[in-house]
Amino acid sequence: MDRENGPRVPARFPGGNDAKAEPAVPAQRNGRTTAADGAGERPADTTGTTATASAGPPSGGGLRFGVLGPVRAWRDGEPVPTGSPQQRALLAALLLRGGRTATAHELIDALWGEEPPSQALAAVRTYASRLRKALDPKVLVSESGGYALRTTALDVTAAQELAAEADRLRAAGDRAAARERLAEALDLWDGEVLASVPGPYAETQRTRLEEWRLTLLETRLDIDLEVGAHAEAVSELTALTAAHPLRERLRELLMLALYRSGRQAEALAVYADTRRLLADELGVDPTPELSRLQQRILQADAELARPVEEPAPTAAPVARPAQLPATVPDFTGRAAFVRELGARLATAEGHVMAVSALAGIGGVGKTTLAVHVAHEARPHFPDGQLYVDLQGAGSGAAAPETVLGSFLRALGTADSAIPDSLDDRAALYRSTLDGRRVLVLLDNARDAAQIRPLLPGTAGCAALVTSRIRMVDLAGAHLVDLDVMSPEEALQLFTRIVGEERVQSEREAALDVVAACGFLPLAIRIAASRLAARRTWTVSVLAAKLADERRRLDELQAGDLAVKATFELGYGQLEPAQARAFRLLGLADGPDISLAAAAAVLDLPLWDSEDLLEALVDTSLLESAAPGRYRYHDLVRLYARACADRDEQPPSGKEAALSRLLDFYLSTAARVYAIERPGDRLVDHLEPTSYEGLTFTDRHEAQDWLYTEAHCLLATVRQSASSPSALRRGVDLLWASLDLAESGANSREYEAVATVLREAANKAADVRAEGRAALTLAYVQHVAGRFDQADGHAHESMDLAAATGDDLPLCWAANALGIMALYQGRNADGERFLTQATASFRACDDAAGEASALCNLSRIHLAMGQTDIAVELAQRGTAMYDAMGHALKGANGRYALGLALTQSGQLVEAAARLTEAFEVFQDSRQRLWEGMSLFRIAEVDIAARRFAQAASHSETALVVLRGVGGEWRRGQVLVVLGRALSGIGQHGRAQVCWREALDIFVELGSPEEAQVRALLLETAAA
Fold first, then answer.
1. Which of 96, 252, 278, 964 has the fewest CB atoms within 10 Å, measured from its CB?
2. How far apart are CA 41 and CA 137, in angstroms?
3. In the beta sheet, which residues pair with residue 386?
4. Is 785 left (phi over 0), alpha (psi -120 to 50) or beta?
5. 283-341 confidence digits (pLDDT tens)
């Protein structure tokens, strides 16, 4: 909203001056609700907030007016002068009468009340005359000794119609559209209503319109809770209850939002705070509605925890998933198995859950049979069917908690309601399925342990499981061993794919083909599909091509080798270049591979590589996971590697292919690092590469690449641990990709890979690589809040770097040791290490590193109470970053500067610097520092006694830091949130936050334990 030109007004102003005001939603700016607006605070009090708003004058032609803020007028979008405060009071009095005539006496009473000046009537006439000239004689008319304004182009009228439309939409069940209309209505408010307008009439209208705004706001929050947005509403309601502590409806909504967010103790604390406040201030008890809500929360009422749109468990489910893959149109044979499994599934209705587990070699048709049976059993499971490929045949088996998250979403559970732990997800999954009749198909399972959490466990549901192993340890399961097809079934399948006419004339050749396929369904389908796609081939030609495969067919008797032999049928038909691509691409460990990475493996141009990959897709030996990305089925990948071991000549070609892939990732990651951190010298100290990587035009494109390739990149790094010639490049790739350590989503995988590389370097006696790997471990452990471990690895890195004369890691290690000393309260050590780091970076001509050390040194001096020095050091470091155009690290500088300015009492500037840092971190996907910036802004808010804003920022920080930053940082945020809640009188919630923080600090043995105990004692004494 533009604070000079006024609020945003719809281009069309509705008519109907007597439209009844309806509840609406709070002002939305750029898709976010500002806590300050929601709490009724004025724009002048928004220092330190992270959300801003901007809008211009109303669009469209004609004369338009606004009173939901300063009294203003526009003609064709341009401001019209409205005169002195008294003249604006006259204009407001006429506008708010909806076109009705106001007598001179009424206007005098509106402007001056019971003590008008002696020349009041003359003044009214003068004001009216001036307004008529400024506006339009046809708009301001004289009637019966009074005046009237003939216009409906008023922001209040627009808000009334938008709110009425929202009410109609809500009644029709379209809550999302209702919320949008309400947002538009409340966006018309621009600060204080009738700002600076004097007189008793203006004061009355100001109170009325502000009350209306709050009613609209409560309605919008009610809609939020109806649609399950309870977690998002907590911070806004916290600020609102602080601004309007006696408004019980807001307290009621806050209690409900907290309860639905799993924060029962805080919800009850809100009630206790409210009861105490009402007794102290008004001498009354809470309303019956609020008291009933407290009782329902105490009783853990299941209905209360369910949003309006979510049905009860006994009602029709929110969602009926239908996830089964399509059954093949040419499904053949297996009649006995279909009857047996179908009968088993039919018994699930009204009985103990049925579990059937199909086992057999790869390619035997387990999935095809299971999908076909599941489709036939659908009438027995009207509440839905779930499906997942558990990828159990390879090393990257799907984690049960990940699968449960996907299943819960498919069953209609909101993301915010899905817990983190495996046990909690499994419990919620079983509860969600209770009373429903759902079939779950768990395909390609690794073992019984993987699928146990995924079993429904209730009568009426059933599970079908496929696996390469017999699940004898799966209690109560009906085990089915699936063998190859009979010769008759195999010939029937071949005929259905190829066509009756072609097979009938060459029946013996067709029998030879299916026999050569070992009667394995996947092998038959591959062979028949290739024949069907080549109209010039005869069945005899295909049989002749398969005749030399006797040795491979013999391998069908050797367990997993049978699958490889089946795939050999397709592999043997490939052109030499296609076969080479198939072998080499299977060497990469990532879950899939991009076209650019595949081109590096093959050492071919992109377009040639794409032709080869698409040819492999056509033969079903490769899958197209997405445009430009490819993946192997896990068993096919194993087969491809076996082919590479057997066929790749010279054998060094395999190592060369993986070396090119590592070079591609290292070169590209270095460019990502350089574009995000201009002037940083790290890229000059990385291992040289012989294969070029990708180039980027902007930092966002570079970031997109890094996070898209995260799993593949880290898999390549891990793979480098087994090759002494690749180890150093793998470590440097990990170092150059350190953004992944801060992202949250990839931090654990990053740490696991760093650990593997450090151990490999130690085993290989590569001191330089070991030192750098230890440095990456120190970095990711710092991000995770495990400061003792980080300190140990930083010391290790420093010693190893000193032994090899590896200058840059020596600088980084000293910097890291200084940071760890800061967190551990060893300020003298921190000053020594960071002074060393500053000098070392300067000696290496690394200005970015020097700036980092200066900003960290600023924090040491801040901890020692030397505020002026801290501010000066942070300013120097930030200026160095800015001179290099280093936006990301410049945000780190502003973060340090914001801390120093906060402690020095320069709160306005501190909030500005921290907000700038927050915006850069958010844009750069640095979740750790995004959350920590919000936390520090909350500290500024507390220092400025803006407790409602502090609570809002702290709540948001907790959400952002979920899964990253470690428990110590979470404890710090909880302490500040408690202070903010205490500041707005919500002492019960404050104590809940402090007790949680105390548990964290006690477990960690952190010195902050004493501070939190003091806070709890102080609150208890009060």
1. 278
2. 38
3. 440
4. left
5. 888 888 888 888 888 888 877 876 665 444 444 345 788 888 888 777 888 888 888 88
